[in-house]
Write a structure and sequence with these properties.
Helices cover 96% and strands 0% of the residues. By secondary structure, it is an all-alpha fold.
Length: 94
């Protein structure tokens, strides 16, 4: 019959072989998962580049609209100041 000194190393070797096989399978699955994640990230990156171009166009358009509105408000403000200065000047002359 097999005594304990012979049985324990055999059990240890069998458990190590099972552990190594399990780890190999786990690593293969992780590599496949990482490849899928890499493909998804590349796709998201390409889409973000397209959206970034769209946001750049929107940003330029809002900057242009803001500069036009600033010019219009500035000219209206200058016209109002010109009218009030002229009225004050006429009151001082009298």
């Amino acid at each position: 019959m097999i005594d304990l000194e012979q049985l324990l190393p055999i059990l240890l070797y069998i458990s190590l072989i099972i552990l190594v096989i399990f780890l190999i399978v786990l690593i293969i699955r992780l590599i496949k998962t990482l490849n899928r994640v890499d493909i998804i990230l590349d796709d998201v990156n390409r889409k973000m580049i397209k959206v970034d171009g769209l946001f750049d166009i929107i940003d330029r358009t809002t900057d242009y609209a803001s500069s036009i509105s600033d010019k219009v408000i500035s000219s209206i403000s200058n016209a109002i100041n010109f009218v009030f200065r002229r009225k004050r000047g006429n009151e001082d002359d009298e």
